[in-house]
Amino acid sequence: MSGLVRPCGARPAACGCGDLTPWQPGVNDVERFVVWGGQRLSGTVSISGSKNAVLPMMAAAVMSPELCALKGVPALRDVSVMRQILERLGVEVGWHPDGTLEMQARELGTCEVREELSRQMRSSIFLMGPLLARAGKVKVAYPGGCAIGPRPIDLHLRGLEALGARLRERHGYIYGEATRLRGQEIHLDFPSVGATENIMMAAVLARGVTVIRNAAKEPEIVDLQNFLNGMGARVTGAGTDVIRIEGVRELGGCVHQVIPDRIEAGTMMVAAAVTGGDVVVSGVIPEHLEAVTAKLKEAGVSVTPAGPGQLRVQGPERPRATDFKTLPYPGFPTDMQPQVMALMCLAEGTSVITETVFENRFKHADELRRMGAQIKVEGRTAVVKGSPVLFGALVEATDLRSGAALVLAGLAAEGVTTVEDCCHIDRGYERLEAKLGGLGARIERSGPAGSVSALP
Ligand code: EPZ
What we know:
Layout: E1 32-36, E2 42-46, H1 51-60, E3 67-71, H2 77-89, E4 92-96, E5 100-104, E6 112-113, H3 115-118, H4 128-135, E7 137-141, H5 154-162, E8 166-170, E9 173-177, E10 185-187, H6 193-203, E11 209-213, H7 219-230, E12 234-236, E13 242-246, E14 254-257, H8 262-274, E15 278-282, H9 290-298, E16 302-307, E17 310-314, E18 324-326, H10 337-344, E19 350-355, H11 363-369, E20 374-378, E21 381-385, E22 394-396, H12 400-412, E23 416-420, H13 423-426, H14 432-437, E24 442-446
Parallel strand pairs: 2-15, 3-14, 6-7, 10-11, 18-19, 22-23
Antiparallel strand pairs: 1-23, 1-24, 3-5, 4-5, 7-9, 8-9, 11-13, 12-13, 15-17, 16-17, 19-21, 20-21
The structure holds ligand EPZ.
């Protein structure tokens, strides 16, 4: 069975070899979204499973020889790349059209994650903990991921060394060995999501008890805890800043339903807000969205419960300018900063946006300026002077969430916006154009520039 999904996120035929085009950077990813502005979105959109929950859980499956199944897995480029990594390690992986991903690591053929895959996303680093725990060795190239800062991995490495791993770095690779990891008290300098998850996974098969202090508290970490415990691990405290892991000798299999993607949900909420629309986002966990909901309400957006797992979002004629600062969960999520900046570009008044999590996450400001936005960036602060209108333009997606923000701006702009390099967006949004189209947006995916008429 082919392990790939098309770059557009189309799913392979069930159990068929499919005619799926392997994604090759720089070859078949020269795609664009063309967005015609001016449509008020309306209707209901279903939210897919969480990318940032699925990726560490896929890595965790390496630790068990039994069958693990994840339900509600989105067809995303990052999931496809992680699948390729697992298959190269010797894990049997099966994908079903209903979004069920089956994985079984009966035995591992290798413990090496090669550079051509590792560099395509940040999540390849999640293989370190599981491979050290299962096999006592790992070789992984430095990870890639969104260009939103230097993205160091020192907290990951220090945590794994504290558990007894012997690590060395050479020619862009990290080599690790461990006879058997042993439990330890670990205090993170920063509540890093990835480092918390990597250490959690390494600790589940360690001898003794591990306590992670100043742990990240994101919902995706709680989901990982639930998945690991389903496999027979003994993890408690996820969702708080102290996580306790009691090591066990081995793990079994399990079936786990992935939580909904709170960032996709927030993105769709901003799509409703920025077009003055009336949209229900369905299949969400409202408490995961509290910081986003509060900020949208402050900006004059109506957000009301619409039934179990549903929120109704009604955009104002024009949003109010609102200041916000990104923080680790439960603060305002950094992954929603570009999207809400796009909304603030149309607000009445001036907004001050502070990005405290990543060092360089304002690249979308340059592209929004091409659309007429008035944004001044000084270090980690952006000052946005709202305009009554944005204008369609040719802009470039520089990373996943910046790309999504440009699509949102295009939905509200006068004229046509072409968002280049939508491959970044496909990493984290499943069939974005189909979901927005289902709400009344006019958005098309196209190949090289000019292949789609830019005229209405
Ligand atoms: C996860 O990245 C998410 N990715 C990111 O989502 C998200 O923005 C981020 O958490 C924060 O919520 C996945 O879960 C796959 P961090 P991660 O470690 O783990 C510094 C998206 O758009 N740091 O919490 O890489 C780091 O430089 C992506 O879906 C170190 O200094 O984030 C950053 O400034 C983008 N040393 C801060 O911590 C380390 O060893 C937060 O990083 C690790 C991190």
